[in-house]
Amino acid sequence: EPEVTQTPSHQVTQMGQEVILRCVPISNHLYFYWYRQILGQKVEFLVSFYNNEISEKSEIFDDQFSVERPDGSNFTLKIRSTKLEDSAMYFCATNRGAEKLFFGSGTQLSVL
Amino acid sequence: QKEVEQNSGPLSVPEGAIASLNCTYSDRGSQSFFWYRQYSGKSPELIMSIYSNGDKEDGRFTAQLNKASQYVSLLIRDSQPSDSATYLCAVNKSGGSNYKLTFGKGTLLTVNP
Fold first, then answer.
1. Cα–Cα distance measured from residue A19 to residue A66, given in angstroms and rounded to the nearest whole number
2. Which of B82, B69, B78 has the alpha carbon at shortest distance from B33?
3. CA-CA distance, A37 to A91, in Å (whole number)?
4. What is the mean pLDDT of residues B58-68?
5. Which of A32, A53, A66, A78 has its CA 20 to 30 A from that of B74?
């Protein structure tokens, strides 16, 4: 089965630092997402991205967050000034159309 | 108001038994419904999707949807220890390609050998 690849698997950063989480979507997929899951909590939608622009974003996705597809293959989530409460597992997900959504294996972000 | 609610469990069943997982949702405009399995520290894995009222069967799994009652369920027949995981109910307001999913907190299922 095709895979969504996420790097790094673990990221440790100091509060206030910028982090970039990377995702390589499945090659013919058109829709890209970021979800996050704080330890012990539910999976939460952050943002969806289609046709090189944000199609929807949640209340969580404020000005400290941004997404881009810099080179037509990678899909990145940037957190500009990390806070302690940003510590979570971040999942990239992609789909081609109205079919199965594929989740990546996640990046565990720890903000100290 | 919680949008997607599930019993957190744990739900414990013996091997070979039927496990029944339930979910309610608040948005009547929801169009598509999903059950994901999540092992500890791993990403969600799609088990079933259902879009219309009634039952949908896939192997040992049956999803049931009742839009009037805003209720979705998952039955796992002949439960195996490998089924032990957290089961996430997810709802999409859109029936199309944009997967802005709202997840429940999940039900922890333990299948005892």
1. 11
2. B69
3. 8
4. 97
5. A32
